[in-house]
Write the structure tokens for this entry.
Amino acid sequence: MATEEELFASVDALLGEEPQLPPPAERARLREAAGVTQARLAVALKTSTQTVKNWENGRSEPKEPRLSAYQRLLNGWAEKYPKPGTAPAAATPQPPAVPQTFAGPAAPEAPAEGEAPAAQAAPEPERSAARPTSRRPAAKKAAKPVVDPRFPHGPLTVLDGDGSAYGVDGIVLDCPATTIPQLVEWTLKESGLGAPRLHKNGKDSDPLIVLTAAAAVKLGLPERLEGHEQRRSLRLPEDHPVVKQVAKAKWELTQRGFGPWARIYRKAQGSQRQCVQLAILSWEALDPRSWPGVAEMEPADVARVLGVYAQRVITPRGSTAVSGLELMTALRPPTRAVRDDQTGNWVPGHNPGSLGKDPMDPAPPEATPEHPVVVHSGWTGGFLNEEAYQWVRPADRLTDEECMLPYAVGLDLNTAFLAAAARLVVGLSQPDHFHAPAFNPKIPGSWLVDLSHIELDPRLPSPFTPTGERPTGPAWYQTHTVAYAQELGYNVAPIEAYLRRETGAYLDPWHDRLKTAYVDTLADLGVTKDLDDRQFLEAMERHKDVDPALAAVLAAIKATVKGGIGKLRERHQGKNYKDGDRWPALERPTWRPDIRAAVISKARVNMHRKLLNMAKMTGLYPLAVLSDCVVYPSPGPSPLDFLPYAASGKPQPGGFRLGPTPGLAKLEGVQEMLWAIDLMEKGYNPARHIKGGDAVLDEGE
């Protein structure tokens, strides 16, 4: 028989337990009975609306100190709004009748906050009978969660030095980790972070943990990385205590080591990935050119910026250039499940329309001079030179009337390279070599053609060279460049070509997702499609001041476009490289300089077509063109002073048009352009100096 001391100890243990909350459906009933919205309750409990939703559908449970406060509130509501058919609160409660036998399953224990729930079975008949007041609408709402139930707290969090982890939608988690291995374990087991795959044959996005300077120091990392190398190349030495901690805990680092973007993983067990991405703010993980002002924001604001980007683009895995490339693979996974005819098992097979899982060497003229294909073959036949425009009209080709105009106005095409990627057919297979082939504009590839005989207006840049100068003899061109020569009415007779038999619009889903992200973010900043040209210019003038966080997202989306295209021909990095050696980027299926050339060729041709149409409609010729920006002499400070409009007031088709859609133009300040002109006249490459330009012209990061 139990003693009095044992009984009192058991009672004290019960009193010391955490408060017990009513079932999730009852929590929702009480809140609705009180006429309180989930958003208002979230404000009162200093949490996010999504967290309240999770409490009310059983995906997570509150923790102290919110647990006690939430229970107190629910108890108060329960006294005011008892269940229908129950006795008033003042009356002595009668214990419910207990059946002699109970065949139904026990009520499942609610998962801990951040824990992924098990699959929910349909309610048993006995369960329904025991709870006649269960609300059907609440059950339906729980059946269609707003977020993936495996990742209730979103794709990422920003960890501060006090252990507060700021997530999307204002959520704040408590992270007890004091070492990097503990942080990885917490992220994978308790945080509820991650994002679902973007394609049915793809992989879920790994959770991203962004560390502030204080959090980095707390976890044993230096506040900053110092060294003579470029910041992006800096890494912790292999004998650093944190690197040793990671290895001792049986975790691994990728070949990039422990740098500003560190990936920590274990080999996947079946389909379950074990990988966490870290980004360290004080190590300049967020390049200010791509993420202006974000590194200096408060942790909650950083989480908002990165969260919007993750929702609309992809969870960052490195620089915007890296993320742009990862997005291509996420939307066009290299493999899919196929059934093996012999064993009947499902095995990975090639996914049609993708670039496959194996790297592919380019044709010699598509490669760079240091590429093994060139060095080991002794190739001397020249190279593809499809780059963006860097052209200035010579002073002796300016008229007196142009010189007398008081203004120079810059027009910048919105994400011109993204617009060029739309419906772009590229090669998906190995290149084949042909001698004297008939030109076919539908076949992507590289053509050796002599276009030097083509005579064009000298007041316009040549569409065939990035410098805008007339070709001097046979040269290698991408299909779009040769097709444009044919479009202008000239005969083309290829000498030889490297063509691909299997083709497809590989970049289509990439273009569509980034275009939607760009247009939606601009709309959030007040720049919408329904504005007329004057309203559009006014909205663009103030859009960066509407919401600095969303303005940073917009800049990151633009950098993702340029950087992703540039990464398709990433050059070697490292001072010890020798020509002919392979470098890591060559081992990616996405090292495809021919696709990069196709995008830039189409963008440059699109630009020349608009320049030519503008000259025909208005008689105006550009002063200079740099990448996707063109400068015109103008009688006034606005593009409205010289753009062609019909009598109805609508823009004339074919020339430059204003608008927020990729490929349409916006007003751009000419100060950087004038600086670029000065650089070009001095023999420098302005793409290496101008913000954003190096992402495409210098092959990304």
Observations:
- Residues 593-618 form the longest helix (26 residues).
- The two ends are 75 Å apart (CA to CA).
- Residues 89-145, 689-701 have pLDDT under 50 and may be disordered.
